[in-house]
């Protein structure tokens, strides 16, 4: 009986190590990935990394001419677009990781 428990413990420990290694791999992939977000009319482009760190913001002359209030709204819109794309990519990576580890659908940390 104790031998079976030790085998189970060893198997769980190995599985945890695999999950940790794969999770670090996914984090590294996301850290170097870039996601561009745009406002309506593509007057502004915001780029975020896969872990939602700002990388750069590009503002066209046409956007600058709209004034500070409108410009602020457009930057926020572009940022939200980039953030949504980055979060979606993270969810997909986590779902892929869960599936590669043989986890049934729905057990991948609640990512959808």
From TrEMBL:
One of its GO terms (cellular component) is chloroplast. This is Nucleoid-associated protein. InterPro entries: YbaB-like_sf (IPR036894), YbaB/EbfC (IPR004401). Belongs to the YbaB/EbfC family. Keywords: Chloroplast, DNA-binding, Plastid, Transit peptide. One of its GO terms (molecular function) is DNA binding. It is found in: Plastid, Chloroplast. The keyword Transit peptide applies. The keyword DNA-binding applies.
């Amino acid at each position: 009986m104790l031998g079976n428990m030790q085998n189970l413990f060893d198997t769980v420990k190995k599985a945890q190590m695999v999950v940790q290694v794969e999770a670090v791999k996914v984090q590294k992939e996301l850290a170097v990935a870039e996601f561009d977000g745009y406002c309506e009319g593509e007057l502004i482009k915001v780029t975020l990394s896969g872990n939602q760190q700002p990388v750069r913001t590009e503002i066209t002359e046409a956007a600058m001419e709209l004034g500070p209030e409108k410009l602020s709204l457009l930057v926020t819109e572009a940022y939200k677009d980039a953030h949504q794309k980055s979060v979606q990519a993270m969810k997909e990576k986590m779902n892929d990781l869960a599936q590669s580890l043989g986890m049934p659908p729905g057990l991948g940390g609640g990512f959808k």
